[in-house]
Write a structure and sequence with these properties.
Shape: elongated
Protein name: Dynein regulatory complex subunit 7
Strand content: 15-25%
Family: Belongs to the DRC7 family.
Number of strands: 25
Subcellular location: Cytoplasm, Cytoskeleton, Flagellum axoneme
Organism: Tachuris rubrigastra
CATH class of the domain at 64-193 and 270-346: Alpha Beta
Largest sheet: 16 strands, antiparallel
Main location: cytoplasm
Radius of gyration: 38 Å
Helix content: 25-40%
């Protein structure tokens, strides 16, 4: 870093004067803040960092090697030059003390580590592990960095730390996973620093952005003439539009009032709150764009996010950079090209750059030799030493996380996050006996008192239950299952597990022999939906009547008293191998009236479908074997059919086949009813006796 010449005249602008006034006022604020923040730090009770046992720690924690001492001297000299060049800026975060009270350079506190878990090979897995495993502790003073920085191993052991502890651990994991990651010391908003997400929308409720479809523009377009409209209708539409606009204005005014009420109070320390986070540069691991990671939440942010207000310095395990750019507009306009010496001042110059630029720097040094006779020899000596100096290895012991610790990521067994009108609860696997690992509660008011909807996620359930949605307003519950349920269930919507109270069951149809996809059943009807059947059937609708004895079977087990079948309706897709007048589209069996109605498909050029109806077709002789077909019992309308379909013998055979199919349909309906009862019984038993499965690879849990 070049030192300002003593004889150089500096023009001080109005902005510089303002910054000086601000820096003077900060000294007064620093004396007042600790008393104000005592209440914040007391939110994490019952832990005293000064009482931790450090006797078992390795010698590298308690002493400095020869290279580390040399690095500390270089850092002190760098800090002296920095204060000369930038006297108005705050001191750099260079070498805080560790848990043993020994000063350690921040770059050597990083310990790049790749843990043997697939989830930690991606940045999102590393970030979620750190924010879940550690308990957040606020800084003692919100406008100054901490005086100590403990090793990642100690932070993992006690599962708590401040933003700098979170950042160092996360950056160590990211560098170990191959990312170009850096620790950032800067300033952020109050919500980021205090982990206040009550004004944010829950990430689980955010809808994915729809990609707009690009329409192909045509060179020639057909002009469509406007349709004639009535003036009276236009006047009525204009009146309705005005009324709607008035209602919309009132709603907008109410929303503005609500937003004013919801808007948090102005932060007196805005722009002064110190925070640490992670910077991930593009390039390595195919990262397309540089982004930030907030270690408290594990969420990624764009570098232009308004929540991040400025950067003092960044570092990794190899070097340390100071930001020389203007941060009055936050981080929006910052360049993260660390090779740009104008934007970033590096502490340990890289040897290859020194070799190429040594001649230019020597020329600059000789020109300024007359004004800096006392400082020049020391600078040259320092450059020569930096040229051959490399960052020492990390003094931190190897980072280890056992399988048990990785699975039980929550220090208190549970984690609760409050969002805007929502609450998210998380548990480690096997903590709850029912396999519950996550619960999202949505409220209808800002005070979070009126529960609207609850969504729960499960893991390791033997019944393959994956998610449950409960609508508290409609009293409706929907269970979602993974593939593998013994009854091939995919989803089940119900108000109660009692029969005939309204059930919607979805199945994995590809695993079923009948290709049933969905069944909707109530006290009076049942509808089944099929996919990919060979007979092209896709809907079967059954209507039930009241029982003869008038018993209300809702909530009871109908073993003997079955519901009488009133009507069975089936719908078929078009079979291209058959002519349209032979391909049935819809057939209705009216069981009580003993009627059968057939409706055929239409050809492309047809407008009226062919139909056949049989009324009271069951007429037997004395032997009871024959079916008499008369003009009164059969009505047909087949305008497009051939002579074959007009033959009475053809209709007689068709009626005979339909009678057989009607018997089979009755049997299938009874089987469907029995299957519904069986599903409800199995689900009751599964909920009464919940069992969790353990992977054969999870040795700890199996023991």
């Amino acid at each position: 870093m070049e030192v300002l010449e003593e004889n150089e005249e500096v023009e001080q602008t109005a902005e510089d004067l303002d910054s000086l006034n601000i820096s003077d006022s900060l000294q007064d604020v620093e004396t007042k803040v600790p008393e104000e923040e005592d209440s914040v730090s007391s939110d994490v009770p019952g832990f005293d960092w000064s009482s931790i046992d450090t006797s078992h720690l390795p010698s590298s924690y308690k002493t400095n090697s020869r290279q580390e001492k040399k690095l500390l001297r270089i850092a002190d000299h760098f800090l002296q030059q920095y204060t000369l060049v930038c006297p108005d800026r705050k001191p750099l975060f260079l070498h805080p003390v560790n848990e043993c009270g020994v000063e350690k350079f921040v770059s050597t506190t990083l310990r790049p580590t790749l843990l043997p878990y697939p989830e930690l090979y991606h940045w999102s897995g590393c970030a979620s592990f750190v924010c879940n495993y550690l308990t957040m502790e606020p800084l003692k003073c919100p406008i100054t960095p901490p005086s100590s920085l403990y090793s990642p191993t100690t932070i993992l052991k006690y599962q708590r730390g401040n933003c700098f502890d979170f950042t160092v651990l996360l950056c160590s994991l990211l560098i170990g996973a191959g990312y170009d990651a850096y620790c950032v010391h800067g300033y952020a908003s109050r919500e980021i620093c205090t982990l206040d997400q009550t004004q944010d929308l829950c990430p689980l409720l955010k809808k994915p952005q729809e990609v707009p479809m690009m329409k192909k523009s045509r060179k020639y377009k057909v002009k469509i003439l406007p349709e004639p409209q009535s003036k009276f209708e236009l006047q009525q539409k204009a009146k309705k539009k005005e009324e709607a606009e008035d209602v919309q204005k009132k709603e907008e005014e109410e929303e503005v009032v609500m937003e004013v009420q919801e808007k948090p109070k102005r932060d007196p320390l805005h722009g002064l709150r110190v925070h640490a986070w992670v910077l991930v540069q593009s390039g390595k691991r195919k990262v397309p764009e540089t982004f930030f990671i907030n270690p408290f939440t594990g969420n990624s942010h764009n570098t232009t996010d308004e929540c991040f207000l400025g950067i003092e310095s960044i570092w990794n395990h190899r070097n340390y950079w100071v930001n020389m750019q203007d941060c009055r507009k936050g981080c929006k306009d910052l360049s993260f090209d660390l090779s740009d010496a104008i934007c970033w001042e590096i502490m340990l110059p890289e040897s290859n750059k020194l070799l190429t630029e040594s001649s230019e720097r020597d020329m600059d040094d000789t020109r300024s030799c007359q004004n800096h006779k006392s400082l020049l020899p020391f600078q040259k000596e320092n450059k020569e030493r930096d040229m051959s100096f490399e960052m020492p290895l990390s003094w931190v012991a190897r980072i280890n996380v056992s399988c048990r610790e990785f699975e039980n990521q929550y220090s208190q067994g549970k984690k609760v996050i409050l969002y805007k009108q929502a609450k998210l609860e998380k548990w480690a696997p096997y903590v709850n006996g029912d396999g519950l690992v996550e619960r999202l509660t949505i409220y209808g008011d800002l005070n979070c008192t009126e529960v609207v909807e609850v969504t729960e996620w499960f893991k390791n359930r033997e019944d393959m239950l994956d998610m449950r949605e409960m609508n508290k307003q409609r009293q409706l519950t929907t269970d979602y299952f993974k593939p593998g349920h013994p009854l091939l269930l995919k989803a089940h919507t119900y108000t109660s597990l009692e029969p005939e109270t309204g059930h919607t069951m979805e199945f994995y149809h590809k695993a079923r022999a009948d290709d049933l996809r969905k069944r909707v059943e109530s006290a009076t009807e049942m509808t089944e939906y099929f996919v990919g059947r060979d007979d092209f059937l896709h809907i079967r609708h059954v209507e039930f009547g009241e029982r003869e004895n008038g018993m209300d079977m809702a909530g009871t087990r109908p073993d003997v008293h079955l519901r009488p079948i009133v009507q069975i309706k089936e719908c078929f897709h078009r079979n291209p191998e058959k002519p349209a007048d032979e391909d049935v589209e819809e057939r209705i069996f009216m069981i009580e009236d003993d009627n059968i109605q057939l409706t055929y498909h239409l050809e492309d050029h047809d407008t009226i479908a062919s139909k056949v109806a049989f009324f009271r077709a069951i007429q037997r002789d004395r032997k009871g074997e024959e079916i008499f077909l008369t003009r009164d019992t059969c009505v047909k309308y087949q305008p497009w059919s051939s002579e074959k379909h007009k033959n009475v013998l053809h209709l007689y055979k068709l009626l005979w086949e339909l009678r057989k199919e009607q018997k089979e349909l009755k049997h299938q309906v009874r089987e469907s009813e029995a299957e519904v009862l069986n599903v409800l019984k199995v689900r009751e038993d599964e909920e009464a006796n919940i069992k969790l499965t353990v992977s054969m690879y999870n040795a700890a849990k199996r023991e």
